[in-house]
Structures are given as structure tokens and as C-alpha cells.
Amino acid sequence: MSSTEHLYYQSIRILGIAEGATPREMKDSYRRLSKKYHPDVFYGDSGEKFKAINAAYSYLKKHPEPPKKLYEANAQPVYQDHYREEQRKRYWAKKRKERELKEQMFKMIFLRVRIIIIVITLVNIGLVADYFLLSTEKQR
């Protein structure tokens, strides 16, 4: 919260009015409170409350509208840039994860294919050996 926002909200709290109150409401509240807490009438705090009421009213006379929040003026570009950057990071992280999963999948497939090829090769070697052993026995 900026200092102008803080002063505005502190002032409306001191005067006991709502945000965006009309100048007439501000003036009525100021008059009511200044009569109640005037140092000649209210002896409790040696005029501190009265000074705060005067300061709040003088601030609100100069600044009757609530201050624009800093993010309202340039919220979209800042928010959009931040959002785009976050989306870009998520997108590339997702792509990197997909690439890693594909690599793992291909490694698993090729490992299984190699095992199958080795088994088939061993079976074929066994069949060829059996064929030649049988054919040599028949020749004897």
C-alpha cells in the first residue's frame, strides 16, 4: 500500500466515513467530530484527537477521491508479461518432460527388441545346429 493510499484510508477511518464519501459528508463528519473533541470541550488527550481530525479533513479536502492503485494504471502489461513468462516456462518444462519420456520409452523398446533379437538368434543357432547334427548322423 503506498503512502497516499495509507493517508487516504487513515483519514477516512479517523473521520468515520465510507470510502468515496462526498465532500458534504466529509464536512459534516468533520464538524461533528471537531465539536465533540475540541480541546475546550474534551480534556482527555490534550487536543491530539482534534489535531488528527483537522489533519484528516485537510488531507481529504485536497484529495477527495480514493487514490488510484498503482497496479490499476499498468496492471495488464505487467500481469500479462508475468503471465506470459510463466506460461513460457511451463510450456518448455512440459516439452522437456515429454522429450525425456520419449527417450525413456525408446530405450525400453530398443532394449526389449534387442533381447528378442538375441533370443531369436539363439533359437536359430540351435535349430541350425540341430539340423546339421541330424544331417551328419543320417550320413553315417
UniProtKB/TrEMBL annotation:
The keyword Magnesium does not apply. It comes from the Bacteria. Keywords: Membrane, Transmembrane, Transmembrane helix. Residues 10-75 form the J domain. The chain crosses the membrane at residues 109-134. InterPro entries: DnaJ_C4 (IPR052763), DnaJ_domain (IPR001623), J_dom_sf (IPR036869). The keyword Membrane applies. Pfam families: DnaJ. This is J domain-containing protein.
